[in-house]
Amino acid sequence: MFTKILIANRGEIACRVIKTAKKMGIHTVAIYSDADRQALHVQMADEAVNIGPPPANQSYIVIDKVMAAVKSSGAQAVHPGYGFLSENSKFAGALADAGVAFVGPPVGAIEKMGDKITSKKIAQEAGVSTVPGHMDLIADEDEAVKISNQIGYPVMLKASAGGGGKGMRIAWNDQEAREGFHSSKNEAANSFGDDRIFIEKFVTQPRHIEIQVLCDAHGNGIYLGERECSIQRRNQKVVEEAPSPFLDEETRKAMGEQAVALAQAVGYTSAGTVEFIVDGNKKFYFLEMNTRLQVEHPVTELITGVDLVEQMIRVANGEPLSISQKDVKLNGWAIENRLYAEDPYRGFLPSIGRLTRYRPPAEVVEDTHVVRNDTGVYEGGEISMYYDPMIAKLCTWAPTRAQAIERMRVALDSFEVEGIGHNLPFLSAVMDHPKFISGDMTTAFIAEEYPDGFEGVTLSDVDLRRIAAATAAMHRVGEIRRARVSGRMDNHERKVGSDWNVALQGQSFDVMINADPEGASVTFSDGETLRVSGPWTPGDQLALMTVADAPLVLKVGKISGGFRIRTRGADLKVHVRTQRQAELARKMPEKLPPDTSRLLLCPMPGLVVKLNVEVGDEVEDGQALCTVEAMKMENILRAEKRGKVAKINASAGDSLAVDDVIMEFE
Fold first, then answer.
1. 387, 322, 438, 475: which is closest to 190 by C-alpha?
2. Is the per-residue pLDDT at 492 higher than 50?
3. Consecutive H or E run containing 426
4. Per the residue annotation, which of 87, 179, 228, 288 is the catalytic one?
5. What is the pLDDT of residues 196-235, one digit of tens each?
């Protein structure tokens, strides 16, 4: 077995690989850019090597720099993680030439299957059903438009060397085909060092289901079930689960056998994923093969008990698989939610900054449930604009899908993140969405259910009453403490009232609190009484409460006269007042937000790539105004209505902060 492995990656996947390597007794080497000097993967590894400036194309994807780190460290093998150089055949070839094992497939398999154009041709030759498209390279924008019209809109423009949603755009007309070609080409060059683009038909209403395969160099190949990855945003997966709630055993077997056959046809070894789109009749089409470990691999590990990273290392060491297909049993249900540094209230645009608070839920491994959090950050660390915005993968396992979802709900509510925008509220909303709960979702889920973006969650009256009861009891605890500190309480004499008004989400509840040493009974004006208990004390930012015998997890912030409460995707201002205070508050005028309708504000920290208009130009609703790049993704900012450009405050190449004014309109 290897004694030293270098991980040619960063963030949570580097940390994930280091954990398994250490479990196997293998010494680990990290590489890092200047921006990652204090990163968690650097701290976890046994040693670390600096490889250059923050941009990935000057550090993590520069083969010569990574090879120099391999040589200087004396590593015998390299695990590439995912992204960066993981599917780069030149990198795998350079390692082979240097006599260093690549923890991944052979060069030939990467070249055949890692390239999306070549892999589709091979699949077609093997008789695998594939999505219609133009598999040759696209020269320019005009050719992209011509081919798109031949295929028929909508189409998908994709980077040949792409992955993780980078270099992918959906086009519904000629203008979007031109813009998509340009952006996809730039993203592909920046992310993978390869700007080749191809076009295929975009199949509407599909499910995205993938098969995990594992092959060795001795002719053995198995599949480890499937993963449902249909909930996507910008072609990037957000929620994954295993198994799929849609497949039956017959379809699972057919897809699995086809995936293994395709992998063995190209001499594939190591872990890999064959992706399919599946229609409502369970007819599946080969989409692509990812010749690497997938982001969502933990859900497969949780339902099979197989450590995929360990298997990859053992295969790279020349060992045969220790399990056969008959040994693969799918046990229970697993769900993964990707925590992104992005603001769901700003169209999911990237967010950067310092993690002033980062407290994941406790990891648990029990017979009844599992909570797992794969992460690469820590409290006090910086989220950089240079890399992918994913900062953690929260996973839960339970014997049934319903139980796994409920465990995920509690885990999400228990996850504390402050200092940056993040998508925890959105993930909570998905876990409560009827379509997700029923398993009836497609890749169009987010576009269909949140067509105007995510604006938070409107809680039901039942949920509001539970929160009102809990916060009323919490407020009483705070009032008792304040009374004691001020000297208003003497020898347990109660000076804190029992009648309160709780206002939240536009509703108002009059309640009476009857407290005892075990908790409090909160009675509403209509006679309903809810029993509240929990260990919360003033200053705690997480309240683990029980209301009416059911758990209620609240993230708690202090505001004047109450709390800022975040739970189940909702962000609420909760005011707890005396009856007189509530009466006066209802007479106060509401403060209106400032008018920014004549301004184009930068929605996230980023770099201005291109300005599409000049001062004096008349613009139409939906017209592209400028392009801002952040976290390896290009974002086209468009006009929201007709107008005339009065002033431009930024130039191409400028770095902007959130809400910087890019241009003004008459």
1. 387
2. no
3. helix 424-431
4. 288
5. 888 988 877 789 999 999 999 999 999 999 999 999 987 7
List Cα–Cα distances, 588 to 5, 582, 591, in angstroms: 64, 10, 9
Phi, psi of 632 (to 5 degrees): 70, 10
Alpha carbon distance 467, 367 (integer Å)? 31
Per residue in 65-120, pLDDT (tens digit) is 999 999 999 999 999 999 999 999 999 999 999 999 999 999 999 999 877 778 88
Query: Which residues, other chains included, contact 294 with Cβ-Cβ below 8 Å and sequence gap of 6+?
Result: 82, 210, 212, 227, 273
Amino acid at 619: V
> What global pTM score does this model have?
0.82
Could you tell me which of 408, 389, 394, 390 has the C-alpha nearest to residue 337?
394
Q: Please, which contacts does 298-301 make with residues 24 or more away whose CB atoms are closer than 8 Å?
A: 298/334, 298/336, 298/372, 298/374, 298/393, 298/395, 299/227, 299/240, 299/241, 299/242, 299/334, 299/335, 299/336, 299/395, 300/212, 300/224, 300/225, 300/227, 300/242, 300/334
3-class state of residue 143 by DSSP: helix
Q: 63-67, 139-143, 165-169, 325-329: lowest mean pLDDT where?
A: 165-169
Looking up tokens 């509840």 gives 509
Please say whether the beta carbons of 290 and 272 come within 8 A.
yes
CB 33 within 8 A of CB 52: yes
| CA pair distance 476, 623, nearest whole angstrom | 54
Residue 583's CB: how many other CB atoms inside 10 A?
A: 11
Q: What is the β-pairing status of strands 284-290 and 270-278?
A: antiparallel
First and final C-alpha spacing in the chain: 69
Strand partners, 537: none
Residue 561 or residue 315, greater confidence: 315
- Asked about 288 being catalytic, the answer comes back as yes
Residue 252 has a CB neighbour count (10 Å cut-off) of: 19
Tokens representing residue 583 in the block: 């009466």
Cβ atoms of 309 and 20 closer than 8 Å: yes
- pLDDT band of 558, cuts 50, 70, 90: very high
